[in-house]
Amino acid sequence: MAEYSALSLLKNAFSGNRGWKPAWRKASPKPAYDVIVVGGGGHGLATAYYLAAEHGIRKVAVLEKGWLGSGNIGRNTTIVRSNYLLPESIRFYDHSVRLWENLSHELNYNVMFSQRGVLNLAHSPAQADDYIRRGNAMRHEGGDGVWLSPAQIARYAPGVDISPSARFPVVGGLLQPRAGTARHDAVAWGYARAADRLGVDIIENCEVTGFLRDGDQIAGVSTSRGDIRGKKVAVAVAGSTGRVMKLAGIENLPIESHVLQAFVSESIKPFVDCVVTFGAGHLYMSQSDKGGLVFGGSLDLYNSYAQRGNLPLVEEVMSEMTAMFPAVARLRLLRSWGGVMDMSMDGSPIITKGPLPGMYLNCGWCYGGFKATPASGYSFAWTIAKDEPHPINAPFTLSRFERGVIIDEKGQGPTPKLH
User: What phi, psi does 268 have (nearest 5°)?
Assistant: First the structure.
């Protein structure tokens, strides 16, 4: 942490904080690169970092149409977990949790990863059976899942209403102790800084407007700052995937874009020191280090590229919030925002070579993009460098939809907004 040592803090405090070195260079586009990564969000930046750090590929450009942190990496509720049911999902997301556990040290940048635990509340015997089954599946794959009784929940998360008279009585909960939260923008800054130090060019305000071709081969991109040629072109643009891939002539991907809202309350004294989810609806909540309650709910359930939502969903989330934590009923809402989710047909991501020669695609993250950031970047970089998938992303192909080998965690079928 030499650049952010106590000595550096003291030295810059006396110099008016004018001596800090920029975290990353303001790079200009070069004519050609070995790899072009379209999308400067968490997944794109992580991919560039692992290409340089793990595979020695340093002639890499990350193209971001806006500024770093302006997309979903700065528009989420910061939850990290791997409490899934299907083995493909558990292995992938647990690999991500393991990368999270060492990420601050690896990037030499504090991403404020806090393993405070994620608790899923169950409100019926059938839901309890389902959660216990999921916990057993996690433990079978080497993960951590613990069943808590209502009395144990009362001690673990004292604010939860576990009274028998509650509108949705709590019958128990599945806890993943290793899960938690991280600071979302610090993740973007940490990966950007580490990739920059390895020679990656991070080019902001550079929108891709088309793809260059040599015959059938993708050979680069046209951008708002000129043409850039690349031996390999990787696309990791989350909710904008449909629009960017349309520029390459791909219009029938198995994804839809939906808006997902999130909220922050005014700051209060320490109230809850874990992440809690409400099983009778769709709500998840934690408390930030600044004291605000950070929470979100379901999608707005209509297709949109807008980074804002509507009031019916706000009302639904607030009613679930007060059902779970009656003590916050008079708390004031500080702000809200929307992120654009790329919802796939089976609710699981796509990390694959193709669908065109010279192209690589990373999308379909639904609600799970933030927690997957390290594993997504790690496995996507592997796929780009070696032209074959890493074992953890091998099941998440685009062709699984043609072959019928879907990874439908919730069993909702081909209705993206229900996953």
Answer: -135, 170
Q: Tally Cβ neighbours within 10 Å of residue 341.
A: 28
Q: Cβ–Cβ contacts within 10 Å for residue 72, how many?
A: 25
Q: Token digits for 183?
A: 């600071």
Task: Write down the pTM of the prediction.
Answer: 0.95
Question: What digits encode the pLDDT tens for the residues 257-312?
Answer: 999 999 999 999 999 999 999 999 999 999 999 999 999 999 999 999 988 889 99
pLDDT given at position 2: 54
**β-strands 217-223, 208-214 pairing:** antiparallel
Residue 337: count of CB within 10 angstroms of its CB? 17
126: exposed, middle or buried (Cβ count in 10 Å: 0-12, 13-18, 19+): exposed
Question: Average pLDDT, stretch 309-335?
Answer: 95
Using an 8 Å Cβ cutoff, are 44 and 37 in contact? yes
The average pLDDT across 303-332 equals 94
Length of the chain: 419
Decide: 286 and 274 in contact? Cβ < 8 Å. Answer: yes
CA angle 244, 250, 256 (to 5 degrees): 65
Amino acid at 83: N
Q: Which amino acid is at 10?
A: L
Q: 74, 340 in Cβ contact below 8 A? A: no
> Helix, strand, coil % (nearest 5) of the chain?
30, 25, 40
Cα distances from 253 to residues 233, 234, 244, 316, 401, in angstroms, run: 18, 16, 11, 31, 10
Q: Is the peptide bond before 312 cis (omega within 30 degrees of 0)?
A: no
- The CA distance from 109 to 261, in Å, is 28
pLDDT digits (tens, 9 = 90+) for 126-183: 999 999 999 999 999 999 999 999 999 999 999 999 999 999 999 999 999 999 999 9
pLDDT at 204 over 80: yes
Under DSSP, the state recorded for 63 is E
278: left (phi over 0), alpha (psi -120 to 50) or beta: beta
Q: Can you tell me the mean pLDDT for 15-30?
A: 91
Q: Residue for token digits 């673990």?
A: 156
DSSP state of 331: P
User: Rounded to whole angstroms, how far apart are CA atoms 135 and 84?
Assistant: 8
Beta bridge partners of 260: 299, 339
Amino acid at 123: H
Give the CA radius of gyration of the chain: 22
Which residues, including other chains, have CB under 8 Å from residue 129's CB and lie 6 or more apart?
none
